[in-house]
Amino acid sequence: MALHVRKEAYIQQPAVPQNPDRQPVKRKKLITKGEKVLYLSFLTAFVLCALLVLQNQSVIQASTQEIQKIEHSIDEKMKQNTDLSVQVKELSSYERIWAKAKEKGLKLDEQNVKVVVPGQ
């Protein structure tokens, strides 16, 4: 029973009153306002630089795609030009011209033929 009374006495003890004259201990802040401003400005500058890099990359990619399209169209035009020059050579052959002339009723007159030499 004595133990029981001791436990009750221990439990019922009034809390130690705090001294009202003591001021609470102020904890030192880890990050000051100036450091917060510096960190925020650094973060803002970093984000802006990252956005500029991304924007420049997108402009470069768009330009590259446009250049590739232009090069493809140039290749197509070169193929067409090559095909047309081959067609011109085929159509301007002597035999074909002579056949068309005969078809139209023209005759070859040796006295009426003039030889033209290019470059003179």
Q: What this model shows, in words?
A:
With 120 residues, the chain is an all-alpha fold. It has 3 helices and no strands. The protein has helices spanning 2-11, 33-91, 94-103. The chain is rod-shaped, with a radius of gyration of 50 Å. It starts with a helix and ends in a 17-residue tail after the last helix. The chain crosses the membrane at residues 37-54.
What is the structure about, briefly put?
Helix content is 66%, strand content 0%. The protein has 120 residues and is an all-alpha fold.
Give the tally of β-strands.
0
Measured as a percent range, the helix fraction is 55-70%
Number of helices: 3
Topology order in helix (H) and strand (E) letters: HHH
Portion in beta strands: under 5%
Look at the helices and sheets and give the structural class: mainly alpha
Distance between the termini: 143 Å
Report on the biggest sheet.
none
Shape by Cα distribution: rod-shaped
The whole-angstrom Rg is 50 Å
Give the overall average pLDDT: 85
List low-confidence stretches: none
Organism: Planococcus shenhongbingii
Transmembrane segments: 37-54
Pfam family, one: DivIC
Keywords: Cell cycle, Cell division, Cell membrane, Membrane, Transmembrane, Transmembrane helix
Task: Give descriptors for this structure.
cell division, 120 residues, transmembrane helix, transmembrane, 0% strand, cell cycle, rod-shaped, mainly alpha, Cell_div_FtsL
List the helices and strands and how they pair.
Layout: H1 2-11, H2 33-91, H3 94-103
